[in-house]
Amino acid sequence: MNDTLPPCPDCASSFTYQVDALLNCPECGHEWQATEEAEVGIRDSVGNLLADGDTVTVIKDLKVKGSSAVVKVGTKVRNIRLVGGDHDIDCKIPGIGPMGLKSQFVKKAAD
Questions:
Q1: What is the CATH number of domain 53-106?
Q2: What is the pLDDT of residues 26-38, one digit of tens each?
Q3: Distance (Å, rounded) from C-alpha 84 to C-alpha 93?
Q4: What is the domain partition of the chain in residue ranges?
Q5: Which residues, including other chains, have CB under 8 Å from residue 73's CB and lie 6 or more apart?
Q6: How far apart are CA 33 and CA 20, in angstroms?
Q7: What are phi and psi of 39, to 5 degrees?
Q8: Which of 27, 48, 49, 71 could share a disulfide with 13, CB 3.0–4.6 Å?
Q9: What are the backbone dihedrals phi and psi of residue 97, each rounded to the nearest 5 degrees, phi first?
Q10: CATH 1.20.1730.10 given to domain 1-37
């Protein structure tokens, strides 16, 4: 498994590999062009590309630093804003307020 290659666009498998100019998925057999555009962007925990204004769902309980509050699994966060850095999502959590999240702890919600 190579962490620098994007996940499969068909099945979101992270086990992609490269042969010449093509990327391949061993799980579903999908082949696609290896382009820089495929690697650009912030992706959620399952490989979906995120964009400003998306709605995401938290996939695990997250402790709020400096507080006894916890963001519970399943919490929907609307209208996210993507930023650079360690915490790549700025948002407002209902009942808690503004905070930063890591994209590895969210999944894009199907609205």
A1: 2.30.30.40
A2: 899 888 876 644 4
A3: 19
A4: 1-37, 53-106
A5: 58, 59, 60, 61
A6: 10
A7: -95, -15
A8: 27
A9: 120, -165
A10: no
Cβ neighbourhood burial of 108 (10 Å; 0-12, 13-18, 19+): buried
DSSP for the chain reads --TTSPPPTTT--S--EEETTEEE-TTT--EEE--HHHH-S-B-TTSPBP-TT--EEE-S-EEPTTSS-EE-TT-EE-S-EE-SSSS-EEEEETTTEEEEE-GGGEEE---
pLDDT category at 3 given cuts 50, 70, 90 is: low
Predicted pLDDT of residue 102 = 92
pTM over 0.70: no
